[in-house]
Amino acid sequence: MMESAHPPARPLDPAVSKVINVMGHERGMAVVDEVMRHANLRELRTPDDRYAFGCVLMKRGGVFEAIGRAIKIQAILYGASER
What we know:
Elements: H1 14-23, H2 25-38, H3 47-58, H4 62-77
């Protein structure tokens, strides 16, 4: 059996999955990339990272506000410090 040239895909962060589930993969990833830039994040590793991501996403309003609020609440439940 031949080994793959690519490492196995890393599972998506639940916060990223929430955006993609609503927006579709291509559009969702574009939104995620933009929000990550605005939040000064390189990756989502900690509850505090997810909290910051959720807060920036909420500022977009509409459905993004609802998704961001869910991400923010989940981050708090997992130990993020409210700012």
